[in-house]
Amino acid sequence: MLFFKTVDIADSERALLFDRDRLQKVLGPGRHRLSTLGRELKVEKFDITSVRFEHPKLKFLVRQYQTLLEDAIDVFELNDNEVGIIYRDQKISDILPPGNLLVTWKGAEDVRVDIVDITKNYALNDELVALLGRGVKIGASRQVVNAINYAEVPDEHVGLLQVNSKLESVLKTGAYAFWKYNRSIVVKLLDLRVQTIDVSGQEILTKDRVSLRINLSASYNIVDPEAVALKLKDYANFIYLELQLRLREAVSTKTLDELLEDKDALNAVIANGASEKLSEFGIQLRRVGVKDIILPGDMKVILNQVVEAQKEAEANVIKRREETQAMRSLHNTAKVMENNPVLLRLKELEALERITAKIDKISVYGGLDSVLNDMVKLAPSKSGQ
Question: CB neighbours of 350 closer than 8 A, spacing ≥ 6?
Fold first, then answer.
């Protein structure tokens, strides 16, 4: 019958020696000769290179046998308002959530835990944002992903930090990280650049009961992010509806002819009404413009006929005016020639020249005098008969 038991412990191991399920001591590296006389021994070996000491009865062992274990382990225990940042050999390793217990073996690595009180201070400092924000340094462990809300605010944007659905602050351009524990944290980005919005295909009746389809375009930018966040659930939809209503109001007070004659006036009416309303919610309306006014098919035909008739009437007026001016000019010329036979004769010769230029030959009877005097004759007036 054997009264001794030999146990070998490697340099990378530690062992807990139990007698009748009661912890007796921690066995370090080496060979241990243990007496079994009158004892019920049990040895549990642990690989300390894994750093963490894990056991089904961990809390009980740590608290019950604190004195026996103090030379072999380090104990880190957090309350519900604390977060631990675990360092192994001066490098961030992981995150210890609130209310958790971490027990590590001494001698394997240099382990420390920096404890952060998150009762009020839930934002990470710039150094931790750089190290933990994207989880790059520690391979984006699941614990880090669950622990940290990381957000980047680009240029020309702001971030709205909401904690437990309450707006806490407006974040400027930069990188931020917040502890998720014990609270709900959301960072909503708002674009401060000029944006455009289209109000398309609006069927509207004019003052004279003509149905039109109008397309409207507008540009805007946010000037007061806090007002937008607190007063509006969906600011883009709010802008769309406001422009839509202003467009309907403006069109319903004008006739078709008024709209077609001056679209800029319609733009001004919409812009003035919508700008005042939107400014109350931190939004600046920069420009409003009607892109298209589309008539129904039958109205388009009628309008084309009206335009065609108007143009024909204008053309007739111009034609009559030119004819009147031509007749007046001829009348004045005739009066001048009536009292000046030489000038009259010159005009006759000009006419003769134009006629002869268009024929191949001319037969002359009566000599040159006949050509000069008898080729072109004016009929005598009735008063001269």
Answer: none
Domain boundaries, the chain: 1-50, 195-294, 340-377
Q: Are 254 and 212 in contact (CB under 8 A)?
A: no
Comparing CA positions, the residue from 221, 200, 203 lying closest to residue 212 is 203
| Model confidence pLDDT, tens digit, residues 187-233 | 999 999 999 999 988 788 888 888 888 899 999 999 999 999 999 98
User: First-to-last CA distance in the chain?
Assistant: 177
For residue 190, give the nearest of 156, 237, 157, 163 by alpha carbon. Answer: 157
CA dihedral 58, 59, 65, 67 (to 10 degrees): 110
What pTM was estimated for this model as a whole? 0.65
Q: What is the mean pLDDT of residues 316-337?
A: 79
At the top level of CATH, the class of 195-294 is alpha beta
State the Cα–Cα distance between residues 16 and 73, nearest whole angstrom.
Answer: 12
